[in-house]
Records
---
Amino acid sequence: LKRDSRFAQITDDHVAYFKDLLGKESAVIDGVTTEVSSDDMEPYNGDWMRKYRGHCKLVLKPGSTEEVSKILKYCNDNMLAVVPQGGNTGLVGGSVPVFDEIVINTSRMNQIRSFDDVSGILVADAGVVLEVADQFLAEKGYIFPLDLGAKGSCHIGGNVATNAGGLRLLRYGSLHGSVLGIEAVLPDGTIVDDLSKLRKNNTGYDLKQLFIGGEGTIGMITAVSVQCPQRSSAVNVAFLAVDSYEKMQQTFREARQQLGEILSAFELMDLRSQQLVHKVRSSKSPLDGEHPFYCLIETSGSNADHDTEKLGNFLEDVMSKEIVTDGVLAQDETQLRSLWSQREGIPECLGHWGGVYKYDVSIPLEDMYRLVDETREKIDAAGLRGDTDEFPVVDVVGYGHMGDSNLHLNVAVRRYDKRVEQVLEPFVYEWIAKVNGSISAEHGLGIAKKNYIGYSRSETMVGLMKQIKNLYDPNGIMNPYKYL
Ligand code: FAD
Ligand code: MLT
Ligand code: ZN
């Protein structure tokens, strides 16, 4: 990949313009006119997986939509490439520069604009941290319709830009449904004010959908309006052990049948993912012994007695039918959090050894786990897995949002290694294309999946995407070198 020579290099004059515009010292981090150590730039240049590193020398932190508009117009007029950035927790290298693109970070745009207690509609700046939004809503009896392990750092603008799925999509659906409106800025500075608070609005093309999951390639989201559901007063969690993937599918089926409308999460974890979590944390499994698979089932409803009885009956039933081998129900809030952390902690623990190859895929349920087994066989056949530094692969694990047919196939490594990559790619992508799956269920394409979009989208569709990109961003300054 080569730097696109159409883009200008940042000069002192550019920096002076931005300093004048944004004023406050903290709003511009500049390695062009000021000596800043690479440590100061590292949080903006390096991604969460320590896999991608940019060389940006200028980070801008606008405080308002108007400032974003002026920044983008100036960049567009001067052919300066930019990367929109929220909490920088993205997992496909989309949120960091590739060369010297300017980072436009949303952390100073962090105000909740309004909340309607009756409709549950929240309007907030793009830079509000997901957990902050959710805590605000909790006080009002509502919940943000998205939850994920990075909630303490990711921004809701970033969530919308990636169309993040997370742990409760099964219950609350995709952001394509719950985001009612968007305010965004196009590269030429135009402010698209579509902060609708309407649940229904069939007036022509629904253009906001292009920004949802657009990964910052056509404009910068500055605010969102979100339909938030009622927070359930009764939440229960069960952690179950299952002997085979076949039985895991039966467990899911029974859970849907028996728990019905109160089911709010069904998360899969294989034994190896749990072994790695326990190794890193020096902790123990909530269940005795070792079992090939585990799942976490959450229910959310309005009647604690009713829900507890329902979940208890379900557990008794699936154990008596020998579908489930063992299980535990959280008895209090502390235990509930601890069970959730067996699942939510997986991504962080997998990164412990140095790196991780991540495949976030949608596959028909019946085929889902076979991909993990076959990938492990390939890695073993290549002699890449072992206990010492000579063998880069620590393990091949599978976990994910089984309730949404979304598997996370992860290969934890001691260091990123071309040999490992060559075994995995295009093997994994070919496998997915064969079963008509998707190479990106929820993380997006970014730079990691840039060359593989063709495994999930036809030439016609990629062509249409390119037309849209060119229409919105004719100079190509928005998040260049990424998937389009
Ligand atoms: P960033 O990482 O900063 O940016 C992500 C992308 O969006 C980039 O392409 C960036 O250019 C663009 N972008 C950011 N802000 C804007 C904006 N305002 N306007 C336009 N474009 C913008 N994802 C899931 O789907 N489900 C999960 O369960 C899940 N769990 C995770 C758990 C962990 C521990 C981690 C580290 C990540 C997880 N993710 C998950 C990945 C997920 O994509 C991000 O966590 C989150 O949605 C990204 O938000 P962010 O603010 O960090 O965005
Ligand atoms: C998750 O479900 O934990 C996230 O999508 C992060 C990951 O895939 O590791
Ligand atoms: Zn996920």
---
Amino acid sequence: RDITGIHIDTYHLLSSMSASIAHEVRNPMTTVKGYLQLLMEKEDWGSYKDTFLLMVSELDRANAIISQYLSLANNKFIEKRQHNLNSIIEYMLPLIESDASKGDVCIIAALGTIPDLMLDEQEIRQLMLNLSRNAIEAMNHGGHLTFKTYTEAEEIILEISDEGEGIPPEVRREIFNPFFTTKETGTGLGLAVSRSIAERHRARLEVKQSGREGTTFVVRFPFSRDSICSPGELANESTIQFN
Ligand code: ADP
Ligand code: MG
């Protein structure tokens, strides 16, 4: 976009902004959270206890949004280690379940036998959380949230499906744009962040299908020698990649 004649790359702007926001805003937030927790312990606040808990959880929410901005930064360090997608899914299930239970959503995990990949675990968790939150938010009337993993030709596939309302065709081209949202309180960052996480893993994130019966997002990890290692090999080694 052209602002006062200077061409500014959205991603460069975001990445430098998010780095300074992280530093300047996160630290005072951590201090406030610490003092709130201290105050909570110091006295018996009776009915105000819920207010304190709300304040702490709102701080956590703001912090999570800052993390999403940071994930969009294109100069991010990622630390890849040997992981299996299935174990990351299993680790995330209880967390996702607590989100799902509020919306009458039932989780199905259909995990196939897949080889390990070189992954940044934190980032893959974030990607799974973003996609499953969207899936749950799409299912106002409940339904199934399905995780599926399998190998296909040259790829290891992760699918996350819901039985929600589907993505209207007229917005389908925009959903991966940063800040695009159709939700009243949405940030529009979930899919943009998830796609940049996929790209840092040389993977592709796409909508496989979407309609009245629901939506399936697919992440395709390349099945190549530098992204895959056989069990045992490279067990304690980590690859730090500067993107
Ligand atoms: P946010 O969730 O904050 O709106 P996202 O980047 O996560 O931002 O998603 C962008 C938009 O894509 C959503 O507002 C919604 O319109 C659409 N979307 C994403 N996932 C789904 C889904 N599983 N079903 C229907 N629509 C979806
Ligand atoms: Mg979202």
